[in-house]
Amino acid sequence: MDFNSKLINWYSIKKRELPWRETRNPYYIWLSEIILQQTQVKQGLPYYDAFVTQYPTIFDLANASETSILKLWQGLGYYSRARNLHFTAKHIVNELDGEFPDNYKDLLKLKGVGDYTASAIASIAFNEVAAVVDGNVYRVLSRYFGIDTPINSSLGIKEFKLLASTLIDHKQPATYNQAIMEFGAIQCKPKNPDCSACPLQDSCVALKNQTIDVLPVKLKKTKVTVKYFNFLVFMDHHKKTLFEKRIEKGIWQHLYQFPLIESEKSLTAEEFHLLNFKDTVLKIEHLDYSLYNEVDIVHKLSHQHLHTKFWIIDVESLPKEAISIKSLTKYPSPVLISEFIDHFSF
After folding, report:
1. Whole-number pLDDT of residue 283
2. In this structure, are residues 252 and 246 in contact, taking their beta carbons and an 8 Å threshold?
3. DSSP structural state of residue 279
4. Ranges for the HhH-GPD domain (predicted)?
5. Which parts of the chain fold into alpha helices (H)?
């Protein structure tokens, strides 16, 4: 039995029952693939169910507000995915009469859709022979064939894509693609895979050479930067606060946060007191404040570690743009902010 047959046979026995595997509807497959970018199935499944329930068709998604989509997405991170999701839904509805492109080449033109996602949709929804290469596939191929080319190098990306394209089963590309991805996810796992139960053990180069733990090879990550955030949690006598929409580009674009002052280090109460608040929304010099957390809350992102303090500031009244404290949970916000809102007793 060859590589393809073994994978497909294994998949027929071991595959997980997942809702997007029960359909060929490109909308649902696209939705699942976008959600599962940078997200494990266990975490992504409830979000998929929520989106399908609230937006059962691409027309529903296109007609939704960005704020409601970001709110439903809250907690998944990498929010550009949600913004791209909305943009693409509107594009398909308004420019393509609600019809998904039915081939890899045209799918690749959609915003937020790269090589992997286009290949997945094309093969699973339209049975096109388009090989997928995601993190799971990189791991399976690098171990099985003993390839030590870094998977995040330009050479590695080309090499693995070419190899995947030569291996894909032309008669059942959808099944094969899902089989190799599932195999990497639950059998050929990143750490401590059970090689004794692997159907490919008799011909796996990494197992033979005892290099399971070092493959695949990946170039070192970009240096992590550290930032210090001071969120100003204003509260007035009318039980209102200030909550701002982030307009500038970045990971939290169009999400809401409390007014923010960035500092060069973690501030003590005395150092915070010395800050100049004339440029803040209130344009005042003296504030009646207290510190919510003495120890920084560290929020780790892919390339940034945010050391955060929340400063509780009492004022008599706030500007007209202030909102009711009770309405805070209606706005989409980063997990860092939403967790504070959940735990702080306003």
Report:
1. 52
2. yes
3. T
4. 35-186
5. 3-14, 26-35, 41-54, 58-63, 66-73, 80-95, 104-107, 115-126, 135-145, 154-167, 173-186, 205-209, 269-273, 335-343
Could you state, in order of their start, the residue ranges of all structural domains in the chain? 3-214, 225-343
Pairing assessment for the beta strands 225-235 and 304-314 based on DSSP bridges: parallel
Q: Write the class of the CATH domain 225-343.
A: alpha beta
CA distances from 193 to 5, 206, 234 (A): 21, 12, 50
Tokens representing 247 are: 């307009």
Q: What's the mean pLDDT in 284-293?
A: 74
> Which CATH architecture describes the domain 3-214?
Orthogonal Bundle (1.10)
pTM of the full structure: 0.84
Per-residue pLDDT tens for 295-307? 999 998 878 899 9
Cα 238–chain centre separation? 37
Place of tokens 């080319």: 149
**Catalytic residue ranges:** 33
> How is residue 32 written in tokens?
């699942």
Sign of CA dihedral 233, 251, 124, 192: negative
The pLDDT tens digits for 176-210 are 999 999 999 999 999 999 999 999 999 999 999 99
